[in-house]
Give the backbone structure.
Amino acid sequence: MSDYLVDLGANRTARNLVRTLGLPLPLPQKLERGKGPLSARPVEGKTVWVGLVGAADATVQAALAASIPALGASVALLGPGFDPQPWNEAGEGFGRPVDRKDLPADDDKGHALVFDATGARTVADLKALYNLGHNSVRKLARCARIVVVGRPPESMGTPAEVAVQRSLTGFAKALAKELGAKGITSNVLEVAVGAEDRLGGPLAFLLSKRSAFVTGQTLAVDARVDGTPGAWSARPLDGKVALVTGAARGIGKATAKRLAEEGAKVLVLDRPADAGPLGEVARSVGGVAVAADITDDGAAAAILEAAGEGGLDIVVHNAGVTRDKTLGRMDDARWDLVMAVNLQAIFTIEAALAEAGAVNRGGRTIVMSSIAGIAGNMGQSNYAASKAALVGWVDAMGAERASEGIGVNAIAPGFIETRLTDAIPVATREGARRLSALSQGGMPVDIAEAVVFLASNAALGVTGRTLRVCGGNFIGA
Amino acid sequence: MPVSIHSKPGRRAVIVAGSRTPFHRAFSKLLKLDAVDLGAAAVKGLLDNTGLDKSEVDSIVWGGVILPSSGPNVGRELGLQLGLPPSIEAMTVTRACASGLQAVTLAAAAIERGEADVVIAGGGDSTSNAEVKMGQRFVHAFAPVALGKRMGPSDWMNVASQLMPISEVLPQQPKVAERSTGELMGEAAEKMAKRNGITRESQDQLAVASHRKAVAAMEAGHLGPEICPVELPNGDLVSTDGLLRPDTSVEKLARLRPVFDRKNGSLTAGNSTALTDGAGAVLLMSEEKAKALGYTPLAAFRSWSYVGVDPADQLLIAPAIAMPRALERAGMELSDIDLVDMHEAFAAQVLCVLQALASDGWARHRLDRDRAVGEVDMARFNVLGGSLALGHPFAATGARMVTTMARHLHRTGMQTALLGICAAGGLGAAAVLEAV
């Protein structure tokens, strides 16, 4: 589960040698990842540049001003058009006076570049993307962050305005690819009118080290889920009860650990055959082991019993299987098992939880989709169908449960270094790793961090979405 | 809800008198006196000045930061050392630099709850007598010896083998550092100065003003009566403070080199408080008792507030939250306050807090207020000097401030004083005193 090129690149001598000899080896940047529980100020002492694209929208500006200095960052406002008042106030509130300058100075180093492009309406407005970006991107530190804040294109008035907003996604994805070798991520947040007060959470996640493997993505923020927005905080899951299926190893295990670190009591579920490792996970996270096969009729009852009267706040449907064969060669059993585990079991358990009213108000449901579900994959017609189904399912469920205050989202992992991917033949594995903006595979913890984000109140504005945690994988992007 | 005199009609605790030892730089004149000796001297001074019948005292509430491990209940030890009646019970509290104020407000609370009628409260520290500790590794290695095990050569070899590297077993010098972050307090203040744009010049000006006002107050005889002479083991009497510099000036301070960040820093020995030895004591009574015993009350607490912030962020900013809270609990605004008295840990820290109080942004983001608490009128600020000039024996400072402000209110006929103290661990303390 280690990537030799990342290790090589982290060694200064080796890196210089490869460069000097002109070897045709990509040297991916070793990603900076957060350690342990979330910090209240994930960008403590870092410099965040903020630029305007188009006219300033007061509500968006107020939301950005209320969140970025509170995360511990020193803000520099680049270029004209700002109303400095909300920024100055936030700077005073958090003891980080806001700087103003036209462009970064030659010796400046930025940790993040945030474009507020919610006011972009015309082609001329977009020129600011060029001006600010052109003069800043080479001054960004390794593993820096670019976040473009826009509006959902479909909410725009004229086709030209729709187009202008849609251009932001192409711009951000291109930067993800251009700057991925430095570990820099680039993403878009599309904030709906009226959801500005929910922007801070997703922005904090994207600016933090927790989103190290999320790049080239567009995440929509809306006000559909009933609830009260709150500030980014440490231990966001205190007092919550979480269920994680498929928790004996890999992504599920990493997820259970991270949820527990943020204060959740975690019910870890896996097949009775994996009761040994499952028990170890339960012990290490101070949780409860539920040994059950999610395709069994009794699984839902076992979950309800373990949850008890307090119910569940977070449900992570992580368990999944692959049974690869090209369709012509695939036997019934392969098709049936994949559908039973990856899809039908989720439907059955969700129905039982809903009937029992077991998911509390403010709850969060997270399912694991896959890049294979988005792009399709050779030999995975069964798997791809089941994972694509989940993209549709969260879309529908997100809308359905919003009024109950419940958010429903999917995560689509790209190439993640696990026991399963270790078993892939070397050449295929190498291809899968390198065909991404960050030129490397992700770690199980990258998925776990995305789960923690989606499980917390920071993601109040996110529902019905599929978040790719794929390092900017070229497939299906 | 509000811990305020107005929320609990009934008994009121009043401040009757206060007394403190002279304050001296650590490792100077008071070197031979430990925290118990200094506390005993302050309490003795208080009893001598007031002529109080010792049998009237119900309890002693003492504060300390560097507690002697041989007798951490300093309040009890000093009572026994003074030969006070053993029936006067005592406790010792610690809340870093707010320990002294904590002791005094605890005493007021006990009186107002009806638990006591007469309480001596205060605090003190002897930084000169901070214990130099052997590293835990050294202690653990020698555990078999300490436990009286019969030691053979191999046991001694075993002990010796655990004593490397040598740097980890040498005695550890005590320092004013945060346990959670490892940061020295001065480094934290330096960081705050940089973040909030506090200049070296403004710090030096505040320090000079502190010295000028303290010297003037001393010359006018306002502070002298609070100071009781202390007898040293050799029989010498120390009766005046040792840190005041009547001849200091902005030009002189400007020549000092930064201490905590030698290259780009702005905090110097001149605009930071010195490590100090000293103690202060306050006599509190229920209003009825004071009347019955024929004492004139000086002031009473209208409210107080203790708060905490993340020490990894701005370690010493918490008074900018505690002071508005205390005002709110007193049902007052800053404009209702006649005197503002703040502990000056570092000039930079005071200026950061004053800047926050004057900021609408601070009010909106940190206090749930629409408007700034207000600009503190410097003509009402630390009118008799502050810790920069007088010194700061950690737990004595709260008692000193309460004494000085209570006496000043009484002497001038002014009505209210707002106190603010920053403390290690990201703590902040504040209180509103009103004339009686």
Notes: The two ends of chain B are 24 Å apart (CA to CA). Chain B touches chain A at residues 192, 195-197, 310, 312-314, 317, 352, 355-356, 359-362, 364-366 (CB under 8 Å). Residues 5-130+273-435 of chain B form a domain with the Peroxisomal Thiolase; Chain A, domain 1 fold (CATH 3.40.47.10). DSSP finds 15 helices and twelve strands in chain B.
